[in-house]
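Technical note accompanying the year-one report. For the benefit of new consortium partners, we illustrate the data format agreed upon in the data management plan: each record pairs a sequence with a structure-token string. No post-processing was applied to the example shown here.
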Amino acid sequence: MNLQQIQTALREQHVDGWLFYDHHHRDPIAYRILGLSESLHVSRRWYYFIPTEGTPRKLTHRIESGKLASLPGSGHLYSSWQELEDGLRTMLEPYKKLAMQYSPRNAIMYVSLVDAGTVEVLRDMGKTIVSSADLVSRFEAVLTPEQIASHYQAQQHIDKIVGAAWKHIGARLRSGNGAPLNEYEVMVWLQEAMRRAGIAEGYGPNVSVNANSADSHYEPTSAVSKQIKEGDFLLIDIWGRMDRPGTCFYDITWTGVVGREPNQRERQVFSVVAQARDAAIKIVQEAFAAGKPLAGWQADDAARAVIRDAGFGEYFTHRTGHSISTETHGNGANLDNLETHDERLILPNTCFSVEPGIYLPEFGVRSEVNMLTEPGRAVVTGPIQTELVRI
């Protein structure tokens, strides 16, 4: 935990402090930000308060008095619920506006981890509870130079693997030996290629044909997998990170057709999806170039308007993008005004996907790229698909 950085962030957020609270590891964010071991045995409630200025304060149960010993600050103990409430009141007495892992109306569920009862107790003490969502983004989603470099390393490997996959599929289908090829076999081929490239194991990818490509979270298995044939529509969604601690993911989706030219409907849908993707990219790039704040929901609106205006609004059934860090879905701002109204700001030195899609009954198109931001600039980190791949 970097106390100075946290207190600087609190001043910028115009709050009086950040109150961390946990019971039985209900809040994994707290453990990561405070640097506590996630294997710490916790059977009683603990509270840790970082004020904007001054020394942090602790409140722990007497039989677990050492749980926060690794953290700076003064400590108080409780046993009874009356002592707990008195201890909270004393610990927070001068402070009114507190950030917590809370989201009004559960709008951003990723940080909505404090139970309603605890919020009620604090409100009864006259406290105003505000969301720590932007603070969490700052300490969970902002990448180090080493993590940014690892993203580009994964990008180079994965893009090369996807290019080789198209050729592998085409060669297998035209080999003349009559052996069928299915989605699962291509998925395993991709996994093995990533393993050879030093990508960590255990992540996807998704290979889907025709109607399966319209299921945005379809996963082929050895038992359930469609054969890939000449004339099919094919989608590959692939993600991974370098196999060492603390690396950043790269996550992309491409689509193509097998052994033929795309038909008019496929061209139309792909074109609309690509325009929506580019609209989201543009609004992010313009905001960062101008130094203007941009929330995740605004980028989602930019993409969604293109798809809605083209008459496909009902077929775009998920958010435009998600935060990317050491987890595929990180704790920064998502490009989302559908599933949530994500008011978190897109911060410098963060990574996220841009992946609008249109999912018709017979096929689905998604075009996914990743973006990295820095002060004054935002870039797409890999190739941008401009037409359907011909396999």
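Partners are asked to follow this layout when depositing records. The two ends are 50 Å apart (CA to CA).
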